[in-house]
Amino acid sequence: MMRKNLNLLTTHYSLQTKSGFSLLEMLFVIGIMAILFLIGTKIFSNSSPKYKVDNAVVIVLNLLNEAKSMTSSAVGSSQYGVHFETTTLTLFKGETFSAVDPNNREIILNENVNLSNISLAGGGADVVFNKLIGTTDHHGTVTISLVSDLSVNEIVTILSTGISY
């Protein structure tokens, strides 16, 4: 008899226990997750202005290195260069930049940054690399600045050896 009562208690107890979450608990968790999502979105959408400039520097350096590499490797038996404008960079083939060349690859920078103080040997806004050796006669500097605060800037330097940093 005692054994029978114990079985009934166990059965009754297991019927009383709940599994899962209540609606209130689920709403509470979803609310917390929504708040955390909004905070995270706000933090990353307003990333530091310095980050935007640094990102543009990486883009400029990568395009310069690509032009130098293509010239050194004699891709298409040609020279390659980079043309600088205020908000765009253009990778071009040949000794001189032509805005209408369909082979140009234009990169538009983030609207929050621009290029200024383009100071290259020989004047102009083009860095052209010499065939096979990858040097350039158009060495100099380009400043990348935040549009809203020109004091937030970085200077990209292009050496005559073709190395840029």
UniProtKB/TrEMBL annotation:
Transmembrane segments: 20-40
InterPro entries: N_methyl_site (IPR012902), Pilin-like (IPR045584)
Keyword Transmembrane helix applies: yes
Signal sequence annotation: none
Alphabetically ordered keywords of this record: Membrane, Transmembrane, Transmembrane helix
Top-rank taxon, per record: Bacteria
The protein, known as: General secretion pathway GspH domain-containing protein
Species: Candidatus Campbellbacteria bacterium RIFOXYC2_FULL_35_25
